[in-house]
Design a protein that fits this description.
about 45 residues; mainly alpha
Amino acid sequence: MSTTLDQHMCEILDWHFSPETGTPFWLGWAKAAGGGGRLQSARRG
């Protein structure tokens, strides 16, 4: 269950902070936070 939840969270973060699918609000937030316009989600290996 935890792995599925982690994967789902990564997909949500990728969607919100992707230049192709993110909203101006989240893209602006990422840029201001030092994410360069996109944050990379941490995927467990």
